[in-house]
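mind reviewing both lines:
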Amino acid sequence: MTHMENAQLAQMVDHTLLKPEATHADVAALAREAEALGAYSICVSPSMLPVETTVKVATVCGFPSGKHVSAVKAAEAADSVAKGADEVDMVIDVGAAIEGSFEAVEADIRAVREAAPSPCVLKVIIESAALTDEQIVAVCRAAESAGADFVKTSTGFHPAGGASEHAVALMRETVGDRLGVKASGGIRTREAAEAMVAAGASRLGLSGTRAVLEG
C-alpha cells in the first residue's frame, strides 16, 4: 500500500474508545494518536467531552442498548453538541425494529436529529447483526426519513456481532449515495477494513486503528 492510500483510509476512520473504564488520560492519548495517524475523528463517550483535538469529535447517544426514551437520547445529544461534539452516533431501539415498529424508530431518530441539528452529523446505529435483511432496509429508510446523515452497522458491544460486508452492502443499496454508511464492530485487520469500503462503507469505526493502517 502506498502512503497516499494509507492516508485515504485513515481519513475514513473514527478512532474509537468507548470502553467503560476509559479515563480522561486515555482519551487524551486517543486524540494524540488520531492526529498522528491522520484519522478523521475520535469517537468517545459523552462523559469524556469536551476533548481538545485538531480532528473531529464524535460521541455516542443511547449507548450501547438503545433502550433509552427519546427525550433522554435527545437531551444527551444536545448536551454533547454543547460540549463540542461534531458528530453523534445514536443507537436505535433495536427491539422496536424487531417488532416492526418502524414509525417509533423513525420518531426516536427524529427526536435526536431535532436536538442535534445540522451541522452536527447524525449517525444511526442499527445493530445490523441483530436484524433481518428486511428490518435493516426498513430501519435505514426510517433513518433517512428522520434526517440522519449516516447509518452505522453496530455498537461493537452486541453479542450478535459487529459489521459484515453483507450488511454494509445492503445498507448502501438502501440509502444510495444520499447517506453515509459507517461500518463498525470487529474490524481488526487491513483486509477487513478494505472489504468494508469495497462493500460500500464511507466511514469506519476502529479501535485498533494503528494496527489496521499498518496492516
About this structure: The beta strands are 13-17, 41-44, 56-61, 87-91, 121-125, 150-152, 180-184, 203-206. Residues 140 and 151 are 7 Å apart (CA to CA). Residues 13-204 form a domain with the TIM Barrel fold (CATH 3.20.20.70). The first helix runs from residue 3 to 10.
